[in-house]
Write a structure and sequence with these properties.
The complex is a heterodimer of chains A (237) and B (587).
Chain A: H1 2-10, H2 22-27, H3 29-32, E1 41-42, E2 52-53, H4 59-88, H5 100-128, H6 134-163, H7 172-203, H8 209-236
Antiparallel strand pairs in A: 1-2
Helix pairs in contact in A: 4-7, 4-8, 5-6, 5-8, 6-7, 7-8
Chain B: H1 14-19, H2 24-54, H3 63-66, H4 78-113, H5 122-141, H6 160-163, H7 173-202, H8 215-246, E1 258-259, E2 262-263, H9 271-305, H10 312-325, H11 341-353, H12 355-369, H13 378-400, H14 403-409, H15 413-443, H16 449-475, H17 494-524, E3 564-565, E4 574-575
Antiparallel strand pairs in B: 1-2, 3-4
Helix pairs in contact in B: 2-4, 2-5, 2-17, 4-7, 4-8, 4-9, 4-15, 5-7, 7-8, 8-9, 8-10, 9-13, 9-15, 10-12, 12-13, 13-15, 13-16, 15-16, 16-17
The chains are: A mainly alpha (237), B mainly alpha (587).
Chain lengths: 237, 587
């Protein structure tokens, strides 16, 4: 049967008698256990009508990039709103950013480093089939603590602003400060939820590589996003 | 193995099976049902608007009960007219035109057409529907609060939408609920788009290359990309709007604004900013409604033409081009909003450019009709009707794309006629075509063809009877958004309005035929075969209705591009996508 199919390829432009569909099941044992998910490489043995290669990744991996695209778009919208708003009225007041923001920035940067440590240790444990997750789990908890510390720090920054009499509606700059930091903090909280999920799965030795990768992509993104927001706040407010 | 493997066994309990189901087919049907409820609600609202326009002083029975303030004794006040109009627009655009062609039919058929057993993230999929449902409830709840729903239009222009109760009835709680509902809807749509994109990219069956995906799969995929970026912008915009309303910020409210003799305590905001953010979402939204319809219509048409379209790839590239260009034209909604005239020019140009891919698509559809053996049935009639509506509504777009003409026509019924034909009716015709086409697959029963054809002809003529005269009214200078035409120069136009109202009542009533057909066929229709239309794509290789995991544990392998029709020497005149038969094109 495979030989027969090879013949079909070379004559692909002519019409042949219909091949029995059952032939596929019999002659392609490799397809049965492939899972068929994720596209994979399409090279049915014995040759077929066309050799196709399709490099699909896991949905988790794709999904996280899709999420990041949407978040990027949201903050692009907020940034353009800030630029338009700055030019539309004459009530733009400059404010001094609470110094604790810089400490928070450092905290978040370090948390990215600890997460990367967790990821590498996870990969090493997988590679060595050691089955001992304590090291990566410890780094994951460290990330979790630093991330939470960041959120607390941002809250303290809000309190400092309030102490200066700057509330959400006081002036456009303080409005944007609260909106930017608030929306970003929500995204950090989402990341913390992801970290907790990853830690839970890791404790039960059920964490998939793709999940950890997705969480860390997201976390690093939120980190870089914060650097960007800090730059915008620092130059514009 | 990815997440889809986690729920291989079908759920047994009623709640997991029919309510909080993870099955994309159930979720698709739930979206469809929600869209049906929304479309009939929106339609009844449009009836109320039309009746009020021609008989402004006649009481409408029962309406006084719905709103004592808005319709005392059943007579609609001017404000309540705007509130009903706002709700009509919001329901139709968000809960019908976004949900029915994209979320409902896409959810059901995208995974099957690519050979997957479910969406990539079934839990997100379930959350997406139920979040939409919450958004719907919040919106409908605004009918019953204080002085009724929002009146700022479905576009919610600031500062009217941003100020609060001082600006009129409905602008208190009603408008806040509107903002909340739309924000929730954004989250739901983002989750849905995430699922569509990841599923299309990662869960395709073996051999299902991107170019082997059916055109409607492509349309849903492109739509999900557009929706992802569009709703990601509307969400922060809604956040800022709600903050302006409840927290006293001034993002969209300018300085020294006096409303109802009161100086508003806001300063420096930009009403144009809201319009920019809104239309940056709003124009792509038009294509979120129409692209899936284009895909469905292509799919249905090809099957009934019994031959592929003139160029499969060109159709896909045109849809991509439309999706891309849809992000560069939002300013054409703002020609009369006080934008810099140079920006008007910059937005006018891409608006005209977007007609090129749209025209190519139309020519491909029409050109493919030539020499075909067209099978006339309800689905193919609605597909052809879509083309007719799309062309008729699209042609007036040429006029409106040019600022000099748009300035005259913008605030008139011309615009109403334009977007109802091209976005509303055309997209709904796409949904009808898809429904008649896929109903046998979804339920295992056939819909009544005679009733379907009757539904088509009456709807087709009715829709033209409603929306064509709008163009005439607009050219005659009839302004839109007025609740009654008391000005002298509008009096002579009243007969036209009467005609439109009768046509609207008639065409709306005709939809009961569809509803009857839908429900009756669901339970008592003729049993459907697996492939009643002799179609080639993967959804027709499985039983009707499909089993829980679509392919019953098998993994389909795809050997052909999706439209192998008119193949000589094949068993029928077609070759299924997963068949090993060799076709004339050798793909």
């Amino acid at each position: 049967m495979p030989g027969n199919r090879g013949h079909l390829i070379t004559m692909a432009t002519t019409i042949h008698e219909p091949v029995h569909v059952d032939a596929r099941e019999k002659s392609s044992p490799a397809l049965a256990d492939s899972g068929g998910r994720g596209g994979g490489r399409f090279v049915p043995e014995g040759g077929t009508l066309r050799t196709l290669e399709d490099r699909s990744s896991s949905p988790t991996k794709t999904g996280i990039w899709v999420v990041l695209a949407a978040v990027t778009m949201s903050f692009a919208a907020l940034t353009s709103a800030l630029l338009v708003r700055q030019g539309s009225g004459n009530d733009w007041r400059h404010i001094v950013l609470p110094p604790i923001l810089y400490a928070n920035t450092l905290t978040l940067l370090v948390s990215s480093v600890t997460l990367e440590m967790a990821r590498r240790r996870f990969a090493r444990t997988v590679r060595e089939a050691a089955g001992d997750w304590t090291e990566s789990l410890r780094a994951l908890y460290g990330t979790l603590a630093l991330g939470s510390l960041f959120v607390v720090g941002q809250y303290i920054a809000w309190l400092r602003l309030r102490a200066d009499g700057l509330y959400l509606a006081s002036n456009p700059t303080s409005s944007f400060f609260y909106v930017f930091t608030g929306v970003h903090a929500l995204h950090v909280l989402g990341g913390l939820a992801g970290l907790i999920y990853a830690a839970q799965r890791l404790r039960g030795s059920r964490l998939r590589r793709s999940s950890l990768d997705a969480v860390s992509h997201y976390w690093h993104f939120v980190d870089v996003l914060w650097l960007y927001l800090l730059f915008v706040l620092w130059t514009k407010l | 193995m990815h997440q889809v493997a986690a729920h291989h066994a079908p759920p047994q309990s009623f709640i997991r099976k029919h309510i909080f189901s993870l099955d994309h087919k159930v979720i698709g049907k739930q979206y469809y049902a929600l869209a049906l409820v929304a479309v009939f609600t929106g339609m009844v609202l449009s009836w109320l608007l039309r009746i009020h326009l021609v008989w402004p002083n006649s009481p409408i029975p029962g309406l006084g009960w719905l709103s004592k303030v808005g319709a005392p004794g059943g007579v609609i006040t001017p404000e309540y007219y705007l509130q009903l109009m706002t709700m009509h627009g919001t329901l139709m655009v968000f809960f019908v035109l976004t949900n029915a062609p994209f979320a409902a039919l896409g959810n059901y058929f995208l995974p099957i057409q690519i050979g997957a057993e479910d969406m990539a993230f079934p839990r997100f999929n379930m959350m997406s529907f139920w979040t939409t449902f919450v958004a719907f409830c919040v919106l409908v709840a605004s009918f019953f609060v204080g002085d009724g729903p929002a009146l700022a239009g479905w576009t919610a222009y600031a500062p009217l939408s941003a100020l609060g109760a001082t600006t009129g009835p409905g602008e208190g709680m009603g408008q806040t609920l509107w903002g909340l509902s739309i924000a929730i809807f954004c989250i739901a749509s983002l989750l849905g788009s995430l699922n569509f994109i990841a599923t299309t990219l990662d869960l395709r069956a073996r051999g299902m290359t991107l170019m082997r995906m059916p055109i409607c799969t492509w349309a849903w995929f492109i739509t999900s990309c557009i929706a992802l970026l569009a709703f990601a912008v509307l969400l922060p915009a809604c956040l800022l709007l709600i903050l302006d309303r409840v927290a006293g910020t001034s993002f969209f409210i300018p300085s020294n604004l006096v409303v109802s003799d009161q100086l508003q305590p806001h300063s420096g905001g930009s009403p144009l900013l809201w319009q920019h953010l809104f239309w940056f979402f709003g124009h792509p939204e038009v294509y979120i409604a129409i692209l899936p319809a284009m895909g469905i219509v292509s799919h249905v048409l090809i099957c009934n033409l019994r031959k592929p379209l003139l160029s499969h790839r060109t159709v896909i590239y045109c849809m991509m081009a439309i999706g891309f260009l849809s992000y560069m034209v939002w300013g054409h909604h703002m020609f009369v909003s006080g934008m810099n005239p140079f920006s008007s020019l910059a937005f006018s140009f891409p608006t005209l450019v977007i007609t090129i891919p749209a025209t190519i698509l139309t020519l491909i559809w029409l050109g493919s009709l030539y020499g075909s053996r067209l099978r006339i049935n309800a689905a193919s009639l609605f597909a052809l009707g879509f083309i007719s509506m799309f062309v008729s509504g699209g042609v007036s777009g040429f006029f409106l794309a040019q600022p000099s003409i748009d300035i005259y026509l913008h605030a008139t019924y011309f615009v109403v006629g334009h977007f109802h034909l091209v976005m509303g009716v055309a997209a709904i015709f796409g949904v009808f075509a898809g429904t008649y086409f896929w109903f046998p697959k979804m339920t295992g029963r056939m819909m009544s063809e005679p009733l379907g054809k009757l539904h088509f002809w009456l709807t087709f003529l009715g829709a033209y009877a409603i929306f064509m005269p709008f163009h005439y009214l607009g050219l005659a200078g009839n302004v839109r958004r007025y609740s009654a035409f008391v000005d002298d120069y509008l009096q002579p136009l009243l007969p036209v309005h009467k005609f439109i109202t009768f046509a609207a009542l008639f065409t709306g009533a005709v939809q009961l035929i569809f509803l009857y057909n839908l429900i009756h066929s669901r339970f008592w229709g003729k049993k459907a075969e697996d492939n009643p239309w002799e179609c080639t794509s993967l959804e027709w290789t499985i039983p009707s209705p499909p089993p829980f995991d679509n392919f019953a544990g098998k993994h389909p392998v795809v050997y052909h591009d999706p439209y192998q029709y008119g193949v000589k020497g094949a068993a029928g005149d077609y070759v299924m996508q997963d068949s090993l038969e060799v076709s004339a094109t050798g793909e």
